[in-house]
Amino acid sequence: MEKQNFMDANSPAGNDRTHAPWIRFLEASRRYCTDHPGLFFPLKCFDERVNRLKIRKDSDLLLEGFPRSGNTFSVVAFEHLQGRELGNGHHLHTIAHIRRAIRFGKPILIVIRNPEDVVTSASLRMETKDFAVPLVRYIHYHQGLQALTDHFVLATFEEFLKNPVPAIHAVNRKFGTSFKARPLGEEDRLAIRKKMEEIKEDMGLGEMAASLPSDAKNKVKEEYLAVITARHADLLAQARDIYEKLSMLAKDQG
């Protein structure tokens, strides 16, 4: 018998468990913990990944975003432009991480991406078709950002991918830093992609889970988006509204 993911909404177990009260309670508890550094970091004190990626008092910068928002490209591109690896905090995808950086007085750059691309890509990575879960998480995370906008610079992934200079200049203006910034040429982009390929290999990620685009991923994402639009139009509209407001702020900051 084929093994089923209990979070797969197409399976009977997935439908029952996904909507059970205890699943909703666990999701709400998870969201609360990931908002508060006083809970999140003690609970993760023995987590090697969290300890390796978290912002520290001697870190240069926090570069964060919701999962599948272009985090890997942004971190690799930022470090590539500096010509060295930085002591960055990144890839924890929590409001708690941002609040920790605020407490430490660190420069913070947050990358945001439209919910359609994020939720379809996150669903591929999570191997779930219960699209409500990443949608609700997306909304919660970005509502958390809205409460903290005085403390960081925002950049949309699309603009950072095209030209990171305005975002880096905005960081330098806000925090008095002197990070290097220049447009990415063809050789720069090849070097960044090579580094991302190395990260993919080191992590043992397949095509669907990796941060790199592909035709196969795009095809599945189109199929997923059609389902999301049909089943979760209200949640998607709420996510889109929050994203539009934040992207306008990012435009003003740049």
Write the layout of secondary structure elements.
Elements: H1 12-18, H2 21-35, H3 37-43, H4 48-53, E1 61-64, H5 71-82, E2 88-90, H6 95-104, E3 108-112, H7 115-126, H8 132-146, E4 153-156, H9 157-162, H10 165-175, H11 186-203, H12 215-231, H13 233-253
Parallel strand pairs: 1-2, 1-3, 3-4
Helix pairs in contact: 3-6, 5-11, 7-12, 8-13
Major beta-sheet overview = 4 strands, parallel
Low-confidence stretches: 1-18
What's the architecture in CATH terms?
3-Layer(aba) Sandwich
Structural class: alpha/beta
CATH topology: Rossmann fold
Which percent bin holds the helix content? 55-70%
What is the count of distinct domains?
A: 1
> Roughly what is the average pLDDT, rounded to an integer?
87
Q: Kindly provide the radius of gyration, computed on alpha-carbon positions and rounded to a whole number of angstroms.
A: 18 Å
- The top-level CATH class is Alpha Beta
End-to-end separation: 54 Å
Strand order of the largest sheet: 2-1-3-4
**Total number of beta strands:** 4
* Total of DSSP H or I helical runs spanning 4+ residues: 13
What order do the SSEs take from the amino end to the carboxyl end, as H and E?
HHHHEHEHEHHEHHHHH
The shape is globular
